[in-house]
Amino acid sequence: MDRRNILKAFSISGFVALGSGSVMRQLFSNSAENSSVVDAANLETLEPASIGKLPDKLAELVEEQTAATDYHEVSAPQRLENQVADLQAEIEAAKSDPHVKDYMQKIRYFEGVFEDDYFVDAAEFKLISQTLARMNKVQRTIGHGNFNLISFDQMIKYGRNFSQVGEFSKVEMEYLEQLFFSDAKRYGFYGEKVMNGLTDRVASKDLLKVPKTGNYLFKGKSIQLYETLRRDVGEDIVLTSGVRSTVKQMYLYLSKVVQAEGNMSKASRSLAPPGYSYHAIGDFDVGKVGFGYQNFTSDFAETDVYKKLQDLGYISIRYTNDNKFGVRYEPWHIQVV
Ligand SMILES: [Zn+2]
User: How far is the CA of 245 from the centre of ligand 1 (A)?
Assistant: First the structure.
């Protein structure tokens, strides 16, 4: 089996389904270039996403590696076999833990619907749609860029002051408040809460607007990292989402809930609920210039921009393919804080 076929086999098995392609690339470039053993660190990275599927594929890999030694005089098979045995033991352990199995399945098949998903009822769905429509009017009134930063109090004020928006009703305000303060674990989101107050605002003096993106970044670490990335990766990398206020996160989250037909768990697998997003405190998303919507899909992990990012060695991805937050793999989300 040649390298491409192996990759294909992994891909078919769902092994690289969520874009762990770059890890695979590393794995196979190791095996092709050094004809030596697969780096243990890489194998560890691979293990969690592959529960249930890995043993067969690893057996194949062992075969491949063993075959390679005939041609390149490498005495690695024993070491590799040991690594495989260790991995298999870990996989078995993970399999016997229903929680691990459950959340791994969920973040891998994040678009799916699971038995214990949390759905809003019809009345709540209607209220969400109505509130969302009003928030959308605010966004249209003040513009996309400003809406990224708007605080809760400011939004309420815009409703009162602009007839084209219309005042937020008590029920709408209370709903948003309740959404903010509810525990996201009930939807299956296990991240930490990073914003404590509903009305917390991002101070504009702490921000910089990034030209041609409509997005903002915090001065200090975030902007420095972004500038370093532009220098190291090139002009092809672009900021796709920077600072987001609690209101902006509410808007994105409720839009997801509507898209998911009221399934809050499904929404939470693709987006942190309001108050839980690291975009409020420094993380940001990057993409490839001109790649549009695909920047927010696993296709991004196949781009040269992503490959360059990985090669830098100093980047951390917030939501890895084995994250404990219950969130899908997000190769575009850069961890800053
Ligand atoms: Zn993000």
Answer: 13
Task: Output the CA 326–ligand 1 centroid distance in Å.
Answer: 14
Give CA–CA dist 290/298, Å, rounded.
16
Centroid of ligand 1 to alpha carbon of 191 (angstroms): 13
Segment-wise mean pLDDT, segments of 10 residues, the chain, 337 residues:
35 33 33 34 37 50 46 64 75 63 78 90 97 97 94 96 96 97 93 93 91 94 97 96 96 97 95 95 96 93 95 93 89 95
User: 180 exposed, middle or buried (CB, 10 Å; 0-12, 13-18, 19+)?
Assistant: buried
> Considering the domain 122-334 in this protein, what is its CATH number?
3.30.1380.10
Kindly list the domain boundaries of the chain, sorted by start residue: 3-96, 122-334
Give Cα 6 distance to the centre of its chain: 26
Kindly give the distance from the C-alpha atom of residue 319 to the centroid of ligand 1, in angstroms, as a whole number. 9
- 300 touches 291 (CB < 8 A): yes
Structure confidence by residue, pLDDT tens digits, 151-195: 999 999 999 999 999 999 999 999 999 999 999 999 999 999 999
Residue appearing with tokens 């009003």: 134
Instruction: Let me know: does 295 contact 237? Beta carbons within 8 Å.
Output: no
